[in-house]
Write a structure and sequence with these properties.
Elements (H helix, E strand, L loop, with lengths): L6 H11 L4 E2 H8 L14 H16 L3 E6 L5 E5 H22 L2 H20 L12
Antiparallel strand pairs: 1-3, 2-3
Helix pairs in contact: 1-2, 1-3, 2-3, 4-5
């Protein structure tokens, strides 16, 4: 049985804790400390990328990181839990407005109830969802 996060997982959590969001490839390059080649390109090998994807999936399941839409080049974007909660709640608030506008009261209530644990978690982490994002 695992005794906690592995080295790669801890590295990814630290990297994401120091920025807002990064794509999977950039996370792999940073986690494995890949250096640019002569042309200035970062070469991440398939096994490194696969390991990072597995680690991120595990971290996401544990609520340590959040995944978002695809970013530039179609790459999945990832964020640490503070910024991830902030963006997830903001996205859910926008969805609430749409549900209220169409008058689907049951869907609105269900959606609002699913937001409450996230809002409480954000509050416990000191994330103010009523303010513009600040990494403080």
């Amino acid at each position: 049985m695992s005794k906690g996060l592995g080295h790669l997982q801890r590295s990814l959590v630290t990297i994401l804790g120091n920025c807002q969001a990064l794509d999977t490839f950039t996370l792999a390059a940073k986690a494995y400390e890949v250096r640019a080649n002569e042309e200035g390109c970062f070469i991440v090998i398939d096994s490194q990328l696969a390991s990072v994807k597995r680690a991120l999936a595990s971290l996401k399941a544990k609520g340590k990181v959040f995944s978002f839409h695809r970013g530039p080049g179609g790459r999945r974007m990832w964020a640490g839990k503070r910024f991830g909660l902030y963006v997830t709640i903001k996205d859910m608030q926008q969805r609430s407005v749409v549900l209220a506008a169409v008058g689907d009261e049951q869907a609105f209530r269900t959606h609002a109830e699913s937001m409450l644990p996230l809002i409480e978690r954000a509050s416990n982490l000191g994330v103010d969802i009523n303010e513009t994002w600040s990494a403080a």
